[in-house]
Amino acid sequence: MNIGDVATRSGLPAKTIRYYEDIGLVKPLRSANGYRMFHASDVHKLAFLGRARALGFSIEDCRGLIKLYEDTDRESAEVKQIAEEHLSRIDDKIAELIEMRATLATLVDACAGDHRPDCPILADLASKQQSLHLKETG
Amino acid sequence: MNIGDVATRSGLPAKTIRYYEDIGLVKPLRSANGYRMFHASDVHKLAFLGRARALGFSIEDCRGLIKLYEDTDRESAEVKQIAEEHLSRIDDKIAELIEMRATLATLVDACAGDHRPDCPILADLASKQQSLHLKETG
DNA sequence: TATTGACCTTCCAGCAGGCGGAACCCTTAT
DNA sequence: ATAAGGGTTCCGCCTGCTGGAAGGTCAATA
């Protein structure tokens, strides 16, 4: 089947599928006119990739997951490890964003947001000495 | 003052400072030997940028914030608006990550993670036709 | 004076993970 | 014959830097 069909069925843009071929995630054959020819299993694989990417797995993670997926003898521990590492990265990212959010929310709340020029947000950015959110540890 | 000093005092790598000059965030003069010459105010500005970046503001946000910072007649409402928009983006990102985390945590919990090949994580990625497809079809 | 070694300079390449567009080819319908 | 709607490659752009090569400059030392 052609790339357009595969795009529709897998839910990935054709551009992305070409890119995935570029980086070796899929290897479609070519027909006489140069068009990529995909198998049904490629649609499956691409949808798998789409879902893994939607869960935030990196391309390299995906490469590993695909490999494990295609190896029916793999140990589930290997998969779980990749997932747990990713989970941990997500947790770190969430923690980082929550801290950012707290600092920023404090500043936003402190700012009148009216016609006057006085602004605690800029004041804080300009001089961390009087920060409203200093880290006590670290 | 030379770029090395500025890097030390502002806390930004020299590479980053050169990049910031490239994109017009700072405009140091040049001495006879071609070295960049920074004012004390540049150190201040770069530290400002570093803190804004640490709060997750984009470079374009920073450009706006710097401009507002240097305009003593600006209305705090303008600053607050930029900050609130950013806060909203942070909230969206946090929500997205928390949802990802929940899905992934469920899968990780369901996976034995032992020597056996059976893995709910891969099973889910391989055939979850409906849930992650909803945003495109509905 | 020559030579380190630490500075500084520019430019080129690359990271993730693609997106947008140009320029062109293939197929089918009208 | 032509137009629409596939497909192809290639190139550059996005964010926000980071690393490295090749070379100029400066202060200190042997």
Automatic annotation (TrEMBL), chains A, B:
Keywords: Cytoplasm, DNA-binding, Transcription, Transcription regulation. It is found in: Cytoplasm. InterPro entries: CueR (IPR011789), DNA-bd_dom_put_sf (IPR009061), MerR-type_HTH_dom (IPR000551), MerR_fam (IPR047057), Tscrpt_reg_MerR_DNA-bd (IPR015358). One of its GO terms (biological process) is positive regulation of DNA-templated transcription. Residues 1-68 form the HTH merR-type domain. Its main location: cytoplasm. SMART domains: HTH_MERR. One of its GO terms (molecular function) is DNA-binding transcription factor activity. GO terms for cellular component: cytoplasm. Pfam families: MerR, MerR-DNA-bind. Transmembrane segments: none annotated. PANTHER family: HEAVY METAL-DEPENDENT TRANSCRIPTIONAL REGULATOR HI_0293-RELATED, REDOX-CYCLING DRUG-SENSING TRANSCRIPTIONAL ACTIVATOR SOXR. NCBIfam families: CueR. This is Cu(I)-responsive transcriptional regulator.
